[in-house]
Amino acid sequence: MHNLLSVFFIIFTFFLTGCTATQFGVPEEQWLQMNDEQKQLAISGYNQRQLLAEQRRLERAKADALIQQQQKALQEKKEQRQQARINRIRNGAGDLGDLIRVSILSCQAKLHNKYRQINPVSIKLADGEHREIKINSVTHKDRSYSASLPVKYNEGLVTISGQSSGKKSIKLAYEQSWLKGHRYHKLSAKGAVKLKECEIAISVIPSSSFSIRSRYYD
């Protein structure tokens, strides 16, 4: 009975700890009034609580690590499927409009704190593909500056110089005129790389198995 009362006493003092100074979870003032048996019970209870708290922490960490591992595996599978699709499109197995050529014919990019004319650049893009292309300023006085420009093509939308912050990028939606080639003039962006006075051409690259009807244009 005495031990049972001691346990109740320890539990009661534990809930009264608050922000006061404590010894093994017991307020300092109360600790000084406890006998040796009560102190041993308090120490034992404190150690058990600490052990349980550590076990719970380890279990949560293990569960979180498992979730992260599963999410990573799912993301890797998604990326693998996406890359396999891109490869098929590049090998000629896509629909009309799945493979395009984007050419930056003329443009000024802000490089080294100044807008500079860049050299023309042209790339192929498959639907779902996101690439970083290197742009270089026109050499002036034996000096040239470069930057990495993100270009993405997804579901009929070309995005140039886009970034996660949502700042203005160049966005060009699929048009039937891409089949023969279409030029855009005086485009600008304030995204990953600031651009202005850009002339950009986009054309569809026919594949070996496309249908006459484009998947992006009825």
Give the low-pLDDT segments.
12-18
Shape: elongated
Chain-averaged pLDDT:
86
Let me know the largest β-sheet: 5 strands, antiparallel
The SSE string, one letter per element, is: HEEHHEEEEEEEEE
Q: Based on the structure, what is the oligomeric state of the protein chains?
A: single chain
Helix content estimate? 25-40%
- What is the number of independent domains? 2
Number of helices: 3
Give the DSSP E fraction (strand runs of 2 or more residues). Answer: 25-35%
What is the rounded distance between the termini?
87 Å
Question: Can you give a write-up of this model?
Answer:
The protein has 218 residues and is an alpha+beta fold. It has 2 domains: 1-93; 99-204, no CATH class. The chain is 36% helix and 33% strand. The chain has helices spanning 2-15, 28-33, 36-93, and strands at 22-23, 26-27, 99-111, 114-117, 121-126, 129-136, 146-154, 157-160, 170-173, 182-190, 194-204. The strands form 3 sheets. Strands 3, 4, 5, 10 and 11 form a 5-stranded antiparallel β-sheet that branches. Strands 6-7-8-9 form a 4-stranded antiparallel β-sheet. A hairpin with a 2-residue loop joins strand 1 and strand 2 (26-27). Helix 1 (2-15) packs across helix 3. The protein starts with a helix and ends in a 14-residue tail after the last strand. The model is unreliable at 12-18 (pLDDT under 50).
